[in-house]
Structures are given as C-alpha cells and as structure tokens.
Task: inverse folding
C-alpha cells in the first residue's frame, strides 16, 4: 500500500510541477530574467565542458544580433534574444547556443573581415564612382557567399557539439523551421533559405548519427519540417545523379572536418584550439 501511495504521489507531483522535471519556454519568456540567464549558462556550460572547451565562458543575452562579431576572442558568448523566442525546451535552447559557438570555434568573424580586405584591394581606385560601386558590389557578392558557407559550417559544427553534450541535434532543425516565419534577423539571417538550412542539418546528422535521426524528435515543428525533408529526399532518391552528389558532399564534409580541426589547432583563437583537440582526439 505504501508503495502504491508513493507512486501516486510521484505521479501527482510530476503532473503539477512540470518545470521541475523539464524546462519549457514560449514566445513570452523573458530571457533577460536572472533565473533564465542562469539556466542558459547551465546549458552553455554543459556544451562547453562536454566538448572540452574553455571552462570560464559566460553566456549573456543581447538584443544586438551582431554582438559576437565584436568579441570573437573573448570568453563571453552573446545569445541573440530574437533566436530565443523560438525555443520551447532545453534541447532547442542548447541548439541555439551550439550554433553560436559553432561560429566562434570556426573563426567566422575573422574570415569575413579578411574577405572584405581582399575585395577592397581588388580596385584601389575607390575615389571614382564606378570604382566605389564595383568594390561595394563585390563585397556584397562575397559576403553573401561567405555568410552562406559560415551558416552551413556553424550548423554542422553545432550538430557535433550537441551530440557530444547529450542533446538532440534535430532540435536545431526545429528551431530553424520555426524561425522561418520571422521577417528579420536571427538564425535565418544568412542568405540561406529555411529549406537549405534544414536539409544541410538533416543530411549531416543522418550521415553521421543515423540512429539519432531514426529515433526522431517529437515536436510539432520538427514533424512539420519532416514533410519538407521527405519531399526533398523523394526527389533526390529518384535521381541517381542527385543521390550520388549528396553522398559525395557528405564524404567531402568528413574530410573537411578533420582538415578544419587541424587548421584550428594552429589558430590563436582559444575556441578553435579547444575544438580542434576534441575533433582530432575523436571525442
């Protein structure tokens, strides 16, 4: 009888105090609240420690989505509040954090700055209207290309970070799908369509962690995203050339992953150095 009573009591506690067992959020969640910032740091630290990165990192919430571009080499990571409004649970909170860390460990800010400098040197005669227009156009074109590549790289890096830390990487697809309804900023502010982002993440996760993808991620937004994913897979599977191309792309990513890790080991960026050790060691 005591055991039955204990089980009933446990069930009642579980039903009426869900926040104790699993954090949940919505669009009205105040992410600047001290408790939420503290929990954000807990999630961030889980990812940092599991992936053997700098342990003295602090995570802060900001309304400035470009804040990290000014602090790539610091131990403070700023999470854009516009992305957090799409978060419903800890897996999705971890996905947003991992994506931002993905940009940092890959040194994307530095790469973008280098591209701008190179383009500016293409036509030194910027004093004329034509020269200035040409440089501006080239910067825009190169910036779009760099941004797309950076987002793809940050996404697949996030998948690895999430898996190592024990979070579901499919949560990133869920967040990206929801953010597609946003008009500006955030995870989709990258010149990449929602469809491109989702397929990039799914293909990488499915190639590297098929069992996790097979296990599914049961949120409404992910299930909706699956309709888009399956439609693309149906078209691809019916075309042997597209299927071969997709396989080749994943094989290429595996080679680039190790190459990227080796390059990071030579970097002065503390994020890159820490991440490279994880990749080279196979953790």
Result:
């Amino acid at each position: 009888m005591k055991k039955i009573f204990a089980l009933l009591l446990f069930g009642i506690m579980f039903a009426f105090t869900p926040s104790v067992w699993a954090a949940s959020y919505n669009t009205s969640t105040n992410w600047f609240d001290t408790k939420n910032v503290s929990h954000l740091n807990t999630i961030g630290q889980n990812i940092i420690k599991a992936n053997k990165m700098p342990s003295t990192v602090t995570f802060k919430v900001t309304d400035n989505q470009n804040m990290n571009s000014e602090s790539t080499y610091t131990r403070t990571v700023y999470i854009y509040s516009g992305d957090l409004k799409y978060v419903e649970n800890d897996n999705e909170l971890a996905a947003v954090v991992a994506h931002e860390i993905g940009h940092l460990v890959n040194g994307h800010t530095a790469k973008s700055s280098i591209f701008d400098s190179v383009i500016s040197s293409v036509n030194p005669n910027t004093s004329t209207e034509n020269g200035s227009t040409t440089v501006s156009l080239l910067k825009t074109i190169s910036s779009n290309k760099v941004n797309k590549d950076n987002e793809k790289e940050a996404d697949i890096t996030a998948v690895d970070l999430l898996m190592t830390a024990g979070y579901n990487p499919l949560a990133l697809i869920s967040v990206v799908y929801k953010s597609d309804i946003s008009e500006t900023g955030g995870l989709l502010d990258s010149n990449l369509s929602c469809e491109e982002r989702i397929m990039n993440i799914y293909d990488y996760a499915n190639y590297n962690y098929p069992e996790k993808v097979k296990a599914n991620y049961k949120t409404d937004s992910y299930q909706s995203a699956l309709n888009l994913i399956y439609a693309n897979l149906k078209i691809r599977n019916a075309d042997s050339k597209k299927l071969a191309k997709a396989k080749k792309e994943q094989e290429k990513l595996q080679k680039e992953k190790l190459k990227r890790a080796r390059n990071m080991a030579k970097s002065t960026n503390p994020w890159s150095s820490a991440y490279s050790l994880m990749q080279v060691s196979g953790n």
